[in-house]
Amino acid sequence: MKNDVVAPTRLTDMEHLDLRRISIVDGDLHLGALATMAEVAAHPEIIREWPVISQALLLSASPQVRNMGTMGGNLLQRTRCGYFRDVGFNCNKRLPGSGCPALLGDNRDLAIFGGSPQCIATHPSDLPVALMALDALLVLVALDGGTRRVPLAQFYRLPGTAPDIETVLQPGEMISKVVVPSGPHARNSVYVKVRDRTSFAFALVASAVCLAVTDGVIRDVRIVLGGVGPMPWRLPEVEASLRGRRVDPEVVATAAAKAGDGATATRFNKFKIELARRTVLRALQTVAS
Ligand SMILES: Cc1cc2nc3c(=O)[nH]c(=O)nc-3n(C[C@H](O)[C@H](O)[C@H](O)COP(=O)(O)OP(=O)(O)OC[C@H]3O[C@@H](n4cnc5c(N)ncnc54)[C@H](O)[C@@H]3O)c2cc1C
Ligand code: SF4
Which of 26, 116, 152, 267 would suit a FRET pair with 139, their CA atoms being 20 to 30 Å apart? Predict the structure, then answer.
């Protein structure tokens, strides 16, 4: 709003809603949409059972921002593409059909996965990368009080020909809660974030990895990249190449080398492909050790 990117005619204050609770119900973590990033990051059971969530949040923004930022707001943060936030430029996301100057312009921070000829913006938040690796669900509530549950993996939309429509949220709907399953994979999880400076910066590339190992064999693995696409980008082929294999440095290195497969770089962001491989390797080595 400060940048004149959006000019709503009406604002809704949600502060009074009872949506700030953090609880554990039948082993699942329930995060109210108004729980702050700071209180979720510091929650002792989250640190123990879902460390990737706490780590992703602590590597986000600054303490002051985390004291104010909420689960719902972070999931719906708009892209940091500089053209989107500068009304002096055209932008298909801000003004559909006006063009995408990033395609041939400053695209260093932008997408290598999931982009379209209309938009190559990235989703900037860290939290959803961790939540995607944990197969989280969102509970959405409509104006008439009706609710529906949407897997996070189906919540964000690819830009295609309509980059202005970013999620499956309908008019009048809001996020009320995030539900996160637990398990050995969640307990053994990590978030690795690479950025231009070590604090208060968005991810160039990040990786959330969860790994469950029994008797030296990988039973469950989830690998998600952040900073590379319009939504957290899961790597099912890399996961498949690890599932059922013994935990072995060579197996891990061979799998991580596939992390850039299928990427499409633009002029200034080719480095992200190799960075994706190295970030996944670092994350896998951490949880496998
Ligand atoms: C300088 C700076 C650096 C930052 N660095 C990072 C970073 O490194 N990593 C990172 O992940 N984030 C970063 N952030 C983002 C920050 O962490 C917050 O997540 C973000 O600013 C959203 O704040 P908020 O929760 O107050 O949401 P708001 O700004 O209030 O809301 C954001 C959007 O979500 C909508 N919304 C909010 N809640 C709901 C809901 N429950 N249901 C439906 N719609 C909703 C609002 O209408 C709005 O459109 C940074 C922010 C700043 C300002
Ligand atoms: S990448 Fe997307 S957000 Fe950025 S200028 Fe192009 S259309 Fe706009």
Answer: 116
